[in-house]
Amino acid sequence: MTTYTCRGRNTSGKVVEHQLEAISQDHAVKQLLAMGVVPLHIAITATKRDNSTLKWLARLNQKPLEPEDILMFSRQMYTLSKANIPIIRGLTGLKTSSRKPRMVDMLDNIITSLERGTSLSVAMEKYTRELGSFYIAMIKTGEMTGRLSEVFFRLNKYIAFQNDVRERIKQATRYPMFVILTMVLAMVVINIFVIPGFASVYAGFGAELPLITRGLLASSTWVLYWWPWFLGCFIVAVILLKKYIRTAKGRYRFDALKIKLPIIGDIILKATLARFAQSLALSMDSNVPLLQSLAIVGRTTDNAFVGHYIEQMRDGIERGQSITSCAANTGIFTPMVLEMIAVGEETGELVDLLIEISDMYNRETDYSIKGLSAAIEPILVIFMGGLVLVLALGVYLPMWDLSRAVMGKG
Asked: Over the stretch 204-263, which tens digit does the pLDDT of each residue have?
């Protein structure tokens, strides 16, 4: 049962307030009508914040919303809006059936805001971090154009596309990251446990260690002595880097650096351009003007470097230049893509051509991701082989000289 605070007019026309316990809002309305009260406003009663510490800990332990949760939410909202179910009633049903506390909290707050007369897009702005700026901008567009059901459908396809690209990149980088982590752990174990043990053995025999072993021993001693300072500096550097990336200048430089990385930079650029074309097509197909669509996509793109060039395109088009010339001036599109944009601009089928561009970049991204492991593997093998060689020589050269040290010839 839920407690509702209700305000209405009785048979005398006087405004009265009641607190009722009901299964749903409709049930509360029936109770008021049975009491002879015409409801004016009904809202869930805010509970007192007792045990605030426990509630704070419970919120802290809530699992964040995953992209799959937003995908399912969009699909359900499309189905509900297509069936002409009132939005508050639909959201209440979703809240009842949801088992994720974070999703329940989000739906509850959105429902409360809607009951107060707030629009859906404004109610969702509190959850920009989970939903994304582009998502909320498209919901606002759907409200303005009366095509909210279609917007939810297209957002569902867009999020599914994004999740697919993100998962393929993770799958391609999982093996290299595992190999690098294994190498780092091996270096730590050898420097902390193996090399110092050999040093103590040789110290007893008064033998001089080989040069490569002395180098490994020096690095081991440095790590053992300085690791607290090194760890502290590393943590401080990470914190400062995150703060710098949160600034507009820092994010721009960081995103530009990501695109210029060898091997993986090209994949990031293609995936970003695929999402840009998909987002622009979705926005334009929802009857949003081109300039406004570019402004929305430019502000909400996940790469500030590409977003800067998208804003340059919008400024150029606003000055009267063609879309093709503005896209060519950015220098981030291939000649084939520029030809497709030119054809779409001339024939008025730019949305369809943008979808084709998105599909093309998606295929190229898929092909590049499949070849990512093949491109990185030789580099990892060479680096790992060199590391193993250095460690093996550092460990086994003293063992080969140990017999001479025992005989007094070291």
From this structure: 656 666 777 777 777 777 777 787 888 899 899 999 999 998 888 888 899 889 888 877
Residue 409 burial class via C-beta count within 10 angstroms: exposed 0-12, middle 13-18, buried 19 and up = exposed
pTM of the predicted model as reported, rounded to 2 decimal places: 0.63
What's the residue count for the chain?
A: 410
Single out the residue of 126, 125, 127, 154 nearest to residue 137, CA to CA.
125
Burial call 122-146: b when 16+ CB within 10 Å, e when fewer: bbbeebeebbbebbbbbbbbbeeee
| Helix locations, 190-210, DSSP H | 195-205
CA dihedral sign of residues 101, 117, 72, 94: positive
Nearest to 110 by CA among 95, 96, 129, 132: 95
How far is residue 80 from each of residues 76, 92, 257, measured CA to CA in Å? 6, 11, 43
- In angstroms, the Cα distances linking 31 to 3, 21, 221 are 13, 9, 78
Measure the CA–CA gap between 128 and 113, rounded to whole angstroms: 15
**CA-angle at 323, arms to 322 and 326, nearest 5°:** 90
Q: Which residues are 39's β-sheet partners?
A: 8
Looking at the DSSP bridge assignments, the partners of residue 2 are 22
* 384 neighbors 272 (Cβ within 8 angstroms): no
Please give the backbone phi and psi of residue 237, each rounded to the nearest 5 degrees, phi first: -65, -40
- Tell the residue number behind the tokens 């990470």, with chain if given: 238
Q: Cα separation of 383 and 207, whole Å?
A: 31
Please, which residues have CB within 8 angstroms of residue 261's CB and are 6 or more apart in sequence? Answer: 268
Element of type H or E holding 179: helix 148-189
Bridge partners for 44 per DSSP: 4
Sign of CA dihedral 239, 242, 248, 253: positive
User: Given phi > 0 = left and psi -120 to 50 = alpha, else beta, which region is 2?
Assistant: beta
The dihedrals phi and psi of 36, each to the nearest 5 degrees, come to: 80, 25
Report the alpha-carbon distance of residue 277 to residue 49 in Å, rounded.
47
Which is nearest to 63 in space by CA: 103, 109, 123, 93? 103
Give the three-state DSSP class for 134. Answer: helix
pLDDT digits 0-9 by tens, 364-401 = 877 887 777 677 777 778 887 887 787 777 777 777 76
Domains in the chain, CATH or no CATH each: 2-47 (3.10.20), 66-159 (1.20.81.30), 165-410 (1.20.81.30)
